[in-house]
Design goal:
The complex is a heterodimer of chains A (264) and B (788). Chain A is built from 12 helices and 14 strands. Chain A is of the alpha+beta class and 264 residues long. Chain A is 36% helix and 25% strand. In chain A, strands 4-5-10-6-7 form a 5-stranded antiparallel sheet. Chain A has a 4-stranded antiparallel sheet with strand order 11-12-13-14, sandwiched between helices. Chain A has a 3-stranded parallel sheet with strand order 1-3-2, with helices on one face. Chain B is an alpha+beta fold. Chain B is 27% helix and 23% strand. Chain B contains 18 helices and 28 strands. A 7-stranded mixed sheet of chain B has the order 3-5-1-12-9-10-11, with helices on both faces. A 5-stranded mixed sheet of chain B has the order 7-15-14-13-8, sandwiched between helices. The longest helix of chain B has 27 residues. Chain B is globular, with a radius of gyration of 27 Å. The chains are: A alpha+beta (264), B alpha+beta (788). Chains A and B meet through α12 of A and α3 and α18 of B.
């Protein structure tokens, strides 16, 4: 780790101001950033710790949506009564992220801002058609994810909360990469007011994406076999030690089918 | 039975050492701090193969906190790291043994190869300065695969090793094997890859080297499995120092699995540099450095053929193996794919003729050396995979083909140089089959099939050779070190006992097992026995811990020292009891005149030895402190059968270990709880190799692609089932404990049992070959290929 300045703030406004002034990086749960810093792959001059900002925390039901503060830890989402009763698929997804230590530190906002192409949360945000709230605006999920580690967030823009519309049915199925246990392929399937949405993470280097062939098939028949019958194009999917594009393409359909079965 | 009588032997006594580990009071090398210590960082090559055109340290030397920087050019008078075993090739010539410089000289040969040691006031300053060193490399093509390295046109790694060959070596009667194949009714054949593994001890390598100007001596704390071997190699071969001037302390060590046997460049450079800077120097590897520079394991490519008669009796076995040495010869690298591999190819079977040829090659990868099992897992994998295939080919049951070929008469001389002293292979096979409920397998398979799952059963009837010995035979085979062990039993005046052992404990629980041996033999409380190990300043010259040798060799040395203590105690007792020495019996902690109630307690005798007022000073020295060195007459031969049951999801390729049964014969057991733990750990590592772990270098660039836990898959608790572990006992015939060793058995038997189960399950979908690790991706691809 290189040396850096550490600053803790108690409001979003103060954080934004400090980030603008120092050109530093916001620190949420630190589960990716700190690891990268330890390996000297990341070298922020200033870290602005968001953990003391009360307005970024908490889970509440607002109308037909569950709104989760950006600094809410994965473990809190996983165990939240509200989330479990309204969107059990989201609680289950949070329960499956990383290990216990990661879940007790990692945050929703941090995971989304980082947009690791194999992270779980982007699949839920995109699969449920959630809205990302920032200190500047509201961004629809379909506009938020812009590629590997890239998002629609502007310089100094901070996620404050995410509003998840409550679906009719939803489930997330993750096939883990054996070493990291990140998603080799993770598929979030939801029946929403606007139709069936299927979001896939892990499969592509460019990150989470919606899978139209699966959405079309499941829109016609929300059945596991309907998903299983869809042939996913392997073009553009990742190729690494743990899976070829063909394997990932196959797993997308299989995980979608299993998610549909789990959604009931 | 209380804990203070002979009954303590064979009891699951809780580990004495665990308290300090559990409360965080363990003292590992990195926990040791000395006044004025500096910190080292090693500059490592980012390239797999390159000429070093120049190294400019000027900017780095000027960086804050830097004390000194040394490169290969500074190490005048320092030799390269030695290899501890000379292999003589089939051509009668010694192996090619290129230099293994402490810091690179002219060239780097693998990613992570060390070029410079940077010493600074803090670890961060050392690391910052290392980044300022400017190295001009001329990058050369690299080769990482051991077979590719031998091909014409492969990049040449060492001038001293033309064609990248270290040696071609053979064992066995080739003519007899050829003749047996000529008359065989059936021949089974397999191509086998034994995947390369990275050891991953939980404590990374670490060292703290200090120099004392007052007596021109050095003290080295180091995470090592064998401090005396470390000292001998470093002083006599590399630094040219008297051993008496170097004290090596291996304090608590967090696992080794072989990787901490060897003399490494880092601690050697640090000892040398500690005198140059006249300051203590500390270094602890980061995990990334462990991945790049700890000696790796396995990495064999083999072709095996088994000749049988019409009834499935084995006639001959032919094995050709290429073994990867990595870029340099690590301490015991050369004997692993030869002496510790080919000699095990008889397995548990009466195969009358065996021939094995091994070619070892250099590659642009980290050095490869012993890793839990060291040659024996590779041999077992070859034997048990071909036996499985033979049963399939001959349409015989897996147990039947094994039984038909088991050795029954002991001692048994194999055609590959070993003589097994004892064993009962039917007993361990029967035990494993019963516990694994082989009889119920068909029903379980049918139930899996209903759910669309494939179920398979795999056997491995393994044998290993532990307690490598005797020294004179090993010497004739090329060993450059002895293979005895030393034990010292110091009885303190009031009857407590301090045991000094040359064995080193880094997870094995010696402090408990050895204490049980001593407490049991002396009839004293186990709490009154303290076991000291890992410090050349305190223990007699010992060879350390490797090859499951600690109880059978180290324990025996302690027993021999105990025998001397008891013999002397009888003389003292005879004097005190005014009886003839021959009439004194020692039992349950008391010296008694036979047939009377006249006796002296053990502590009375020890007190008399140190307060010799009423003592036969004219005939006997005072004191009660005895040392023994024990050089075994033979290996020990732990053996057993492992049975693994897997369920495979053909849709995803996921292999689930449904059950794993180990029925082992380790000879007599001192602490069954510790033995169970060793089996659990070994089997988990074996399952890791079979399903998860795989070291991968990029074939073009030579970069390590599995350089972190993001890509190198270690087994986790939920990857393995609750093991069914049991033992059968045929005591070893040539050591007084009757012990054979248990540390490696799990890692030796498990990969073959696992992969036989995987092949059994996949046979019904037409898959004939899948290499380790049977990852979901590979299994799925194999199924797709078979269906295509």
């Amino acid at each position: 780790m290189y040396t850096f300045e550490f600053k803790k703030v108690d409001s979003v406004a103060a954080a934004a101001e400090l980030l603008a002034k120092t050109g530093g990086r916001p620190l949420a749960g630190g589960q990716s950033l700190i690891a990268a810093m330890k390996m000297r792959l990341s070298q922020p001059g200033t870290l602005v710790d968001l953990s003391g900002i009360a307005e970024l925390k908490g889970i509440r039901k607002e109308g037909d949506a569950i709104v989760i503060g950006a600094m809410t830890r994965h473990a809190e989402v996983a165990t939240s009564r509200e989330v479990k009763s309204a969107i059990p698929a989201l609680a289950a997804l949070a329960e499956g992220i990383g290990d216990r230590q990661v879940r007790n530190m990692g945050t929703l906002g941090g995971a989304l801002a980082n947009n690791d192409p194999a992270a779980c949360y982007p699949a839920a945000v995109l699969g449920l058609g959630a809205t990302v709230h920032t200190n500047k605006r509201k961004i629809a999920a379909d506009e938020f994810f812009k590629g590997m580690y890239e998002t629609a967030l502007a310089e100094g823009e901070l996620i404050t909360a995410v509003s998840f519309p409550i679906p009719k049915k939803a489930a997330y199925m993750k096939f883990v990469q054996p070493a990291s246990r990140f998603a080799l392929v993770g598929v979030f399937v939801a029946q929403t007011a606007g139709g069936v949405r299927v979001a896939v993470t892990g499969a592509a280097g460019s990150g989470v994406f919606r899978c139209k062939p699966l959405e079309d098939a499941l829109g016609k028949s929300f059945k596991a076999d309907a998903a299983r019958a869809v042939r996913i194009d392997a073009a553009g999917l990742s190729n690494d030690l743990h899976g070829s594009p063909e394997y990932r393409a196959h797993l997308v359909a299989v995980m979608a089918a299993r998610a549909v079965a789990a959604a009931g | 039975m209380g804990a203070n009588d002979q009954g303590v032997i064979g009891q699951p006594v809780r580990r004495k050492e665990d308290h300090r580990f559990l409360i965080g009071a363990g003292q590992y090398t990195d926990d040791v701090n000395v006044h004025g210590q500096t910190y080292a960082c090693f500059l490592r090559s980012p390239h797999a193969h390159a000429v070093i055109k120049s190294i400019d340290t000027a900017k780095a030397k000027a960086a804050p906190g830097v004390v000194a920087i040394f490169t290969g050019a500074d190490l005048t008078g320092v030799n390269g790291l030695p290899c501890g075993w000379l292999i003589t090739g089939t051509d009668g010539k010694p192996m090619n043994e290129p230099p293994h410089p402490v810091l690179a000289q002219g060239k780097v040969r693998h990613v992570g190869d060390q070029l410079a040691i940077v010493i600074a006031e803090t670890a961060v300053q050392a690391k910052d300065a290392a980044e300022l060193i400017d190295v001009d490399y001329e990058v050369l093509p690299a080769v990482v695969n051991c077979v590719d390295a031998l091909k014409p046109g492969a990049p040449q790694i060492h001038e001293q090793a033309p064609g990248n060959k270290c040696y071609t070596w053979a064992l066995g009667d080739k003519a007899a094997v050829d003749a047996a194949f000529a008359k065989a009714a059936h021949v089974s054949k397999l191509d086998i890859v034994n995947n390369r593994l990275i050891p991953n001890a939980i404590e990374p390598r670490a060292a703290l080297a200090s120099y004392s100007r007052s007596d021109d001596s050095y003290t080295l704390y180091v995470a090592s499995q064998n401090p005396h071997v470390e000292r001998l190699l470093m002083t006599a071969f590399v630094l040219g120092l008297p051993e008496s001037k170097v004290r090596v302390i291996a304090p608590d060590v967090g696992g080794g699995f072989g990787s901490k046997i060897y003399l490494y460049a880092e601690e050697t450079a640090m000892v040398w540099a500690s005198k140059q800077v006249n300051r203590p120097i500390k270094w602890a590897a980061e995990r990334s450095e462990s991945f790049l520079t700890d000696a790796h394991g396995r990495d064999h490519v083999s072709h095996v053929e088994l000749a049988m008669d019409k009834d499935g009796r084995f006639l001959a076995l032919r094995v050709d193996t290429v073994a990867n040495m990595g870029a340099y010869l690590s301490t015991f690298s050369t004997c692993i794919p030869t002496i510790l591999y080919a000699t095990l190819l008889a397995g548990q079977y009466t195969t009358p003729a065996i021939h094995c040829e091994v070619t070892a090659s250099f590659t642009n990868t980290a050095p490869v050396d012993a890793y839990r099992g060291a040659g024996r897992p590779e041999a077992t994998f070859v034997v048990e995979r071909i036996v499985h295939q033979a049963a399939v080919d001959m349409k015989m049951a897996q147990d039947e083909i094994r039984r038909r070929n088991f050795i029954h008469d002991f001692p048994y001389a194999t055609p590959v140089a070993l003589t097994y002293d004892t064993g009962d292979y039917d007993a361990t096979l029967d035990g494993a089959m019963k516990t694994a409920d082989v009889a119920g397998f068909a029903a379980r398979k049918a139930e899996s099939a209903k759910r669309g799952m494939l179920r398979g059963l795999g056997y491995a009837s393994y044998i290993e050779a532990c307690g490598l010995a005797p020294s004179n035979i090993a010497g004739a085979l090329g060993a450059r070190a002895g293979l005895f062990e030393a034990g010292q039993v110091r009885v303190n005046p009031t009857g407590s006992v301090t045991v000094f052992t040359g064995s080193h404990s880094h997870g094995q629980g010696h402090e408990t097992t050895f204490a049980q041996v001593v407490a049991g033999r002396l009839g004293i409380d186990i709490e009154n026995v303290e076991v000291v190990h890992g410090d050349t300043g305190r223990i007699p010259f010992g060879m350390g811990t490797y090859g499951s040798r600690s109880l059978s060799v180290g324990g025996t040395a302690i027993v021999k020292a105990l025998d001397k203590v008891i013999a002397k105690g009888k003389k003292i007792a005879a004097h005190l009891l005014e009886a003839a020495e021959g009439d004194i019996e020692f039992k349950d902690g008391k010296f008694t005149v036979a047939g009377t109630d006249r006796s002296k307690a053990f502590a009375e005798i020890s007190l008399a030895a140190y307060v010799p007022h009423n003592y036969p000073l004219d005939k006997l020295e005072p004191g009660l402190d005895e040392t023994a060195f024990y050089d075994p007459t033979n290996f020990t031969y732990p053996a057993g059968t492992h049975i693994c049951e897997v369920e495979i999801d053909p849709e995803t390729g996921v292999v689930k270990v449904a059950s794993f049964t180990a029925c082992d014969d380790f000879g007599n057991i001192i602490n069954p709880m510790i033995v169970d733990g060793q089996v659990h750990g070994g089997v988990t590592q074996g399952i890791g190799q079979a399903l998860l772990e795989n070291c991968v270098y990029d074939p073009e660039s030579g970069q390590l692609l599995t350089g972190s836990y993001m890509d190198y898959a270690m087994p986790r608790a939920d990857d393995v089932p609750s093991f069914k572990v049991e033992t059968r006992v045929t005591p070893c015939t040539h050591n007084p404990l009757g012990a054979k060793g248990c540390g490696e058995a799990g890692a030796i038997g498990a990969p073959a049992a696992m992969m036989n189960a995987v092949h059994d399950a996949l046979a019904e979908v037409g898959v004939t070959r899948i290499d380790m690790p049977a990852s979901p991706h590979r299994v799925w691809q194999a199924i797709q290929s078979a269906r295509a």
